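U., I forgot to send this yesterday:
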Amino acid sequence: MKYDVVVIGGGPAGILAAGAAGNRGRSTLLLEKNEKLGKKLFITGKGRCNITNSAEFDEFMKNLPQNSKFFYSAFRGFSNQELIALLNQLGLRTKVERGGRVFPESDKSSDVIKALEKYLAAGNVSVRLQSKLKDISAEDGRITDVTLENGEVIQCSSVILCTGGMSYPQTGSTGEGYGFAGKLGHTVSPLLPSLVPLVTKEDHVKALQGLSLKNVAVKAVVDGKTVYEDFGEMLFTHFGLTGPIILSTSFFIVEPVRKGRIVKVLIDLKPALSEEELDKRLLRDFEKNYNKQFKNALDELLPQKMIPVVVSLSGINEAKEVHQITKAERKNLVKLLKGFECTVIDTRPLSEAIVTSGGISLKEINPKTMESKLVKGLYFAGEIMDLDAFTGGFNLQIAFSTGYAAGMDA
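Result:
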């Protein structure tokens, strides 16, 4: 059996790579070890599939905090707008939601997969499911063939590795691609969880399990220095913190946490108010509840679940009548509400991260074509490379754009 191009991995990067190669007339085989294509795509965006983000070029690149320059050419060659146009041509209607997030109009990730399967069919791509790779062979610095676990050898001139990272291993992202790349001489930078929930020290955080906060601001502080700020939605869990702004925050603190540095997340529960304005708001609330006990005077200010925690942390006696609360006590309460402190002691494991940070060194990959600089005919696309971004559809666009770039050159 012989093909021009063999693509390993049927996720978003692999499907785009195979489709692009096939649609330009290359005989293409897509190998997927799972029983269906796009297994990880099915669960993205809570099953709705956050396909991409509608942000303009400059804004898009701001959401790739590291190595964004590497991505310039791939994005210019196949942008978010071109992806949306392609999916529309394939019969998928899309919509833009808060923060520029792009979803299928149907809210069904399965519809995205169906559209992408049409793209493969249009390019006459051969798809083989439940087919696991055993080896990639090269001679004189050039790809020659691949061997499957069943012993079958498939000759080819190009291989595109799209095996993903190590997050969500139940979808097939178990990291074997790094081994194949390493055997062919490539460097793999340390693999860390990115966009991952945070484990915190304080018992009061656990007491807030299940509480979702909207329109709050967070600040990540490492050894007393602010490294990141964000605004939006978050959630308290039995182990600590999660939710969109926490996942983005994790990008900047995974490494410091691993190194044992002092990492704190400060939550501003009332970001729309300055300390002075919040103090005035408290005075008004206290005047309205003049004879009430402190524990019963915060109903209009905070979610019910948060009140006992804030009361306890404030140091103010819960039974104290609000008209007896001193100015100093009130000022401390303001500081607590503007900087609710959580000490980060760990992250959840890589298997629970949305994406894997680290991977194949970008210094060894041509940014225009995604071809290896070490082995002719070897290409990479998607999460296997040391390239990742914030939440909001940016990581999927990386997969689609780099897959397309590889498929157009292989």
